[in-house]
Write a structure and sequence with these properties.
Elements lengths: L8 H11 L5 E3 L6 H12 L8 E3 L7 H5 L7 E3 L8 H11 L4 E3 L19
Parallel strand pairs: 1-2, 2-3, 3-4
Organism: Hucho hucho
Protein name: SPRY-associated domain-containing protein
Keywords: Leucine-rich repeat, Repeat
C-alpha cells in the first residue's frame, strides 16, 4: 500500500504519460483512489504512450462511475473488492467479446466506500 489518494492521480498520470510505453503492468491495489482518481487514471492510460496490459485496482474504493471509465484495451483487470454496480455488465460484455481478457470482480461484501484500514475491519 502506497497510501495514494485520488489527489495523487493527476501527478501519476503525468509521470506515466511522459515515457511509459514499456509499462505492461500497473499495481495500484489498496489505495484510496476512488472514482475520481480512477477516472483521471483512465484518461491518462488512454494516452498513446502508456497502455499497460494489466491493471490491478482491488480495494481502491472504486464504484460504478470509476469502473465505467476504465479502458477496454486491458488484457487483465482486477477490480476485486470494489463496487462496480451496473458497470459490471459492461465489463463482462468486454470479457465475452475477448476470450483473452481476464477480469476479477470478486466483490465479497462491498466495503469500497470505507476509507483505508476501515474497509478491512469487518472481514
Amino acid at each position: 500500500m502506497c497510501r495514494l489518494t485520488s489527489y495523487c492521480c493527476e501527478a501519476l498520470v503525468s509521470a506515466l504519460s511522459s515515457n511509459s510505453q514499456h509499462l505492461r503492468e500497473l499495481e495500484l491495489s489498496d489505495n484510496d483512489l476512488l472514482d475520481s482518481g480512477v477516472k483521471l487514471l483512465s484518461a491518462g492510460l488512454a494516452n498513446v504512450h502508456c497502455k499497460p496490459e494489466i491493471l490491478r485496482l482491488s480495494f481502491c474504493g472504486v464504484k460504478e462511475e470509476g469502473c465505467a471509465s476504465l479502458a477496454s484495451h486491458m488484457r487483465e483487470l482486477d477490480l476485486s473488492f470494489n463496487c462496480p454496480g451496473d458497470s459490471r455488465e459492461r465489463l463482462l460484455s468486454v470479457r465475452l467479446k475477448n476470450p483473452y481478457f481476464k477480469l476479477n470482480m470478486d466483490c465479497g461484501e462491498c466495503r469500497a466506500d470505507k476509507p483505508g484500514p476501515k474497509r478491512y475491519a469487518e472481514r
